[in-house]
């Protein structure tokens, strides 16, 4: 019997939109949001976890909707002073945001796991659902580009995704283990669905899937695995997803994202705008409006995804019974 627990795999901004929708319609205990750690890096002596922080700020209602990243009501005294001193200022850290990185780094140096620190910050900021880094082990996304191998944030922020991407690697993934709570959730009889949020497949979802044992754990899990397309009408809503697809030799389309995930998926939610591609997708397709501008749209898409997952689960049960 499937139960109540929903696991959502997420990057930053696109993933956090759906995670917020899910958090409005599920009980906090029923939602486990798994954050990509491939974007994490050391900067100015601090450990920065961009995706977990985006999720935490979004779920706490503290996200900066004007900038589209970082914390709301932010001030920039630290950054302005750093610039005046000729310091490294290509990665912008607001004053409030900075406190998170300072405290996280202090606790990591004391030997606390990233997941424990993240859980504690979430509790203190009033986040209901659990936000869990995919692994507590070091895992770093690297990109081979026309300018050579680059660290993720060099590519993403310093060079603003301009270099042409040829290949990705997830340093540390083979030696990393999925967080035990994540493995337990995937084995849990009460698992209702695994949702792959509409995040960038290459730099947000695949670093989670690259953690040793993750793909096997997902294949073995009894609940349906369902993804939401981050591509609408051949374009990314934001960020380099479509550009990367072209550079990696794929057509930027919702169907190509499903094909990239391959056997992992039981279901796929794609936008009404992409209805003509549905026949190219192997898992069961649900068409819906997938652009999440308002909170109501986030909630509605969350309902659609859960409905599609529940339908898949009943179908499975009927087939097993027959
Ligand atoms: P990042 O880690 O901050 O880059 O964020 P993600 O990887 O989680 O999200 C980036 C992806 O989210 C991009 O491919 C966007 O196209 C997608 N995205 C952003 N907003 C939406 C939306 O409202 N609907 C859908 N379907 N995708 C979205």
Give a description of the structure.
With 322 residues, the chain is an alpha/beta fold. The protein has a single domain, classed as CofD-like domains (Rossmann fold). Helix content is 41%, strand content 19%. The protein has twelve helices and 14 strands. It has helices at 13-25, 50-59, 77-84, 95-109, 114-125, 152-158, 180-187, 201-209, 214-220, 241-247, 254-261, 295-321, and strands spanning 5-10, 31-35, 41-43, 46-48, 130-133, 140-145, 148-151, 165-171, 191-196, 225-228, 231-232, 235-236, 267-271, 284-288. The protein has a seven-stranded parallel sheet with strand order 5-2-1-9-10-13-14, with helices on both faces. It has a three-stranded antiparallel sheet with strand order 7-6-8. α1 (13-25) packs parallel to α2 (50-59), α2 (50-59) runs parallel beside α5 and α4 runs antiparallel to α5 (114-125). The longest helix is centred in the last third of the chain and has 27 residues, at 295-321. The chain starts with a strand and ends with a helix. The structure holds guanosine-5'-diphosphate.
- Quote the average pLDDT: 96
User: How many structural domains are formed by the residues?
Assistant: 1
Distance between termini?
16 Å
The CATH architecture would be 3-Layer(aba) Sandwich
Helix content: 40-55%
What is the CATH domain class?
Answer: Alpha Beta
Low-confidence stretches: none
**Major sheet: arrangement of strands:** 5-2-1-9-10-13-14
Radius of gyration: 19 Å
């Amino acid at each position: 019997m499937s139960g109540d627990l929903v696991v959502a795999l997420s990057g930053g901004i696109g993933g956090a939109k759906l995670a917020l929708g899910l958090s409005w319609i599920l009980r906090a205990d029923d939602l486990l949001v798994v954050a990509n750690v491939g974007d994490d890096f050391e900067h100015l002596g601090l450990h920065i976890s961009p995706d977990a922080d985006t999720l935490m700020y979004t779920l706490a209602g503290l996200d900066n909707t004007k900038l589209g990243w970082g914390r709301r009501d932010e001030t920039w005294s630290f950054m302005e002073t750093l610039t005046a001193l000729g310091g490294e200022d290509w990665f912008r850290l607001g004053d409030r945001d900075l406190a998170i990185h300072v405290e996280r780094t202090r606790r990591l140096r004391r030997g606390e796991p990233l997941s424990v620190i993240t859980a504690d910050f979430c509790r203190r900021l009033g986040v209901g659902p659990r936000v869990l880094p995919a692994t507590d082990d070091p895992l770093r996304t690297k990109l081979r580009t026309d300018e050579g191998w680059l660290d993720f944030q060099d590519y993403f922020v310093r060079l603003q995704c301009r270099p042409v991407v040829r290949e990705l690697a997830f340093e540390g993934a083979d030696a990393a283990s999925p967080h035990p709570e994540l493995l337990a959730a995937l084995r849990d009889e009460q698992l209702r669905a695994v949702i792959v949020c509409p995040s960038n497949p290459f730099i947000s979802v695949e670093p989670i899937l690259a953690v040793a044992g993750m793909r096997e754990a997902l294949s073995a899990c009894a609940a349906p695995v369902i993804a939401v397309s981050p591509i609408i009408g051949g374009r990314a809503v934001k960020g380099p997803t479509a550009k990367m697809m072209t550079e990696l030799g794929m057509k930027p389309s919702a169907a190509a994202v499903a094909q990239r995930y391959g056997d992992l998926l039981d279901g796929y939610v794609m936008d009404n705008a992409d209805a003509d591609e549905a026949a190219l997708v192997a898992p069961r397709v649900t068409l819906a409006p997938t652009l999440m501008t308002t909170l109501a749209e986030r909630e509605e898409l969350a309902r659609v995804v859960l409905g599609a997952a529940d339908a898949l689960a009943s179908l499975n049960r009927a087939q097993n019974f027959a």
